[in-house]
Amino acid sequence: MKNLRKVVFPAAGLGTRFLPVTKSTPKEMLPIVDKPLIQYGVEEALKSGFKDIIIVTGRGKNAIEDYFDYSYELEDILSQRQDNGILEEIRRMPKEVDVAYIRQKKPLGLGHAIMCAENLICDEPFGVILADDIIDSKVPVLKQLTNIAKRLDAPVIALMEVPKEMVKKYGIVKGKKIENRLWEIEDMVEKPDIDKAPSNLAIIGRYILPSNIFYYLKKVKPGKNGEIQLTDALKLYAKNNKIYGYVFEGTRYDAGDKLGYLEANIRFALKSKELKQGLLNVLKKAIKDECSQKG
Ligand code: UTP
Questions:
Q1: What is the pLDDT of residues 99-136, one digit of tens each?
Q2: Mean pLDDT over residues 287-293, rounded?
Q3: Ligand 1 pocket check: which of 132, 207, 227, 229 to mutate, most ligand atoms within 8 Å of Cβ?
Q4: Domain spans of the chain, in order of start
Q5: What is the DSSP letter of 218?
Q6: Ligand 1 atom closest to Cα of residue 19
Q7: Are 128 and 10 contacting, i.e. CB atoms less than 8 angstroms apart?
């Protein structure tokens, strides 16, 4: 696959698991320590060589557009205060990225959100990042997938092994292993029961997709609540075309879920020199207090 320049961030979901905060704050703008979720994804895309960022937004998501834009008033005040460190940091994103936005008028599923970007993608393969899957890795995961997609000239999706009892929360693939970490995918099942799951390899929110995925997305019949699922389109695609899954190297946090979100915050804060010792003290005290209350 050549010409991998564009990456789509579907960010038009309702974020119901985080209500009430997501009533007026987009889930993608919730902070992990001091940066919003979506910034981690955008930084991953840039480090993976993708230059064109496309964000699919919806009602109530204006904060995302403001975030990737200059903020003249704030910059003016910070520059009067000669607060240069933070001034540089808040200018960094708007300087480094040009973002194109497209609205999904109704939250009709992940597949539908990707379809909204069709006119901006044109005839090129592209990446997809779900910003609430935060992944900590030496080589950015989108880069790991890009390397395979270029070598095999085929689409690739990120996979992760999950405990058997968790398969019902994910899209699960059936396939054959062809190399270390690399699977040729034959089929996919959305949220199967343990006894019906073809494997314990779950689809995670990073994809390299071909431009003709839109043809398959249009063929998908809407499911529950009229939603169009990406997994259904990939399933159709896999019937006639080669598609691969790569068990990525790194640690993933499901920041779309409250516990995963809290864990991501703790883990990323523990990576900060400034916060590490203070946070460890807070955690130790909290655990001690909890244990002594139980005793
Ligand atoms: P989720 O399944 O996490 O749904 O979407 P959600 O609405 O964001 O959150 P919950 O489950 O209600 O708490 C996965 C990704 O797909 C996007 C979301 O923004 C998220 O990045 N999405 C989902 C859309 O862009 N549009 C949709 O209609 C649905």
A1: 999 999 999 999 999 999 999 998 999 999 999 999 99
A2: 91
A3: 132
A4: 6-276
A5: H
A6: 13
A7: yes
Is there an atom of ligand 1 within 6 Å of 234 CB? Answer: no
Task: Say if CB 58 and CB 12 are below 8 A apart.
Answer: yes
* Residue 76 predicted with pLDDT over 70: yes
Strands 6-10 and 126-129: parallel
Helix (H) or strand (E) holding 222: none
User: What does the alpha-carbon distance between residue 280 and residue 144 come to, in Å, rounded to a whole number?
Assistant: 32
* Nearest in space to 241 (alpha carbons), one of 161, 115, 133, 153: 153
Q: Count of residues for the chain?
A: 295
Q: In the beta sheet, which residues pair with residue 55? A: 9, 101
Is 6 touching ligand 1 by the criterion CB < 6 Å? Answer: no
The total of other beta-carbon atoms located within 10 Å of residue 67's CB is: 20
Task: Answer whether 246's CB lies under 8 Å from 130's CB.
Answer: no
Counting residues of the chain whose pLDDT is more than 70, the rounded percentage is 99
Domain at 6-276: CATH code? 3.90.550.10
Closest to 88 (Cα-Cα) out of 98, 79, 100 = 79
The per-residue pLDDT for range 176-199, each reduced to its tens digit, is: 999 999 999 999 998 999 999 999
Closest C-alpha residue for ligand 1 atom 9: 15
Say if ligand 1 is within 6 A of residue 26 CB: no
> How many whole angstroms separate alpha carbon 113 and alpha carbon 117?
7
Closest residue by Cα to residue 15 from 2, 26, 31, 29: 26
Atom number of ligand 1 nearest to Cα 10: 25
Ligand 1 centroid to residue 111 C-alpha, Å? 10
CA angle 147, 203, 7 (to 5 degrees): 50
Ligand 1 centroid distance, CA of 13 (Å):
4
